[in-house]
Amino acid sequence: MQPVYQAALRSWSIPPVATFVIVLSALVYLRGFWLLRRAGVPFLPTWRAVAFLLGLFSLWFALASPMDVLNAFVLTAHMLQHMLLMMMAPPLILLGAPLIPMVRGLPIFAAREFAGPFLNWSVAERIGRTLTNPIAASLLMGVAMFAWHTPGLYELALRSSSWHQAEHTCFFLASLIFWWPVVQPWPSRGQWPRWAMVPYLLVADLQNTALSAILTFSDRVLYPSYSATPRLFGFSALEDQIAAGAIMWVVGSLAFVVPAIVIAVQCLSSRSSRDEISSFPKHEGSVAHEVLAASPRTPLGRRLLPARSTSKGFEAISFAVLFVAAGSCLAWLFSSASPDSDDQALRFSQQTGPFAVAVFSSPGDLSAGPADFAILVQDRNTHEVLLDAIIELTARTEDTPGTSSTVRATHQYSQNKLLQSAELNLPTVGNWSLDISVRQGSLRADLSLPLNVINHDAGTENRWPYLVILVFFAILLFAYTWRHRASKLKILNGLRIY
Quick one: 344-454 is in which CATH superfamily? Predict the structure, then answer.
């Protein structure tokens, strides 16, 4: 394998926040799955847990693998990432029937006081049924796919890591809703007959075909960023777009058509109806209600919930401690996360001597303090990535004579191993110059670019995750107080009547 492709495959970026949430979700699910199996619930075979974990792994792989690092350079990598987020992770997660195991895996106080009442709340039930109605789900999926692939929104997601994360979240949530009527995870019940899922999937395939055909047969590059960014693997931006459209066409069609065929065969088979009747309870909704609202005083509650040897006060304190610990860890990961490749934009590109040099950094004016730069060096004629080039960066300012810093860029701290990165200290506000020296053997080139450094207060940006956790905790506290106050008022009103 060529060194360039080896470097691309080593370009992993582990997202700390997403990894924490995915691992925590897996632990909660496994705890609930184990407790339900121990209680004798017969509707959760082992393969469902395997499917759920594979779905979580697919989600993590889409966010951590080289596809995420290279998506700003290669549209094909970006499209593969979208296929994992929309066509693989959501149906696998839903096949794990996650609703009841996730609720049961929570601390008993959280399941009894928050998750159970919320899922049994009439407003939540109506919203859930509306969103998972096949018509609404199909429209939501189509809008999400077409909207985010318009040049304006797509370019916005490429320029901003926040919008890029919003795009991925939108794709994933819309796909969960879309695949819900198809998978129909226990204990939910379908709103349409099972055979109706065949045209439902075929309509989605038509939407996917229309969008992929636009990418495949367009005679121009639809997303300008891919025309401006250096080409890494020798094919043009238009060829990359055609390949991405073909991947979307083939993978998307398989994801929609194969389940449609399976469902059609099941509906045409007399055996499928007997299997369905024997595999699920006759009153799925009532079973779910009993599981979620189970009390240790009921027979089902004694099977599903552990024996209570602690008081409600201790359960509440334990939950508060766990919530504060998990919330603080999540907020710290948010606030201390280092900038990823989505936070860097092409700042400078020039052919000089035998090299083509591209410089990536944070877009716009730079803030005083440490600043990250990533450098891509290619052969000027062949555009081959030169991994062995020696790059030295020097930042200097005329406003403060003698203030300068020089570092050597390396592949070690770069998420994209095709680039070399370095951190330079820009301590003062003003006009700076970045001098870049590139050497490979006896070949050498020097270039310089101006930088504008401004003051920037990042205090609020570092504190907002903690504020979000506090607001969420306040909402839970309000819900708990309001719910128990309403219960006490009902009891008092009953006493007044009698």
Answer: Immunoglobulins (2.60.40.10)
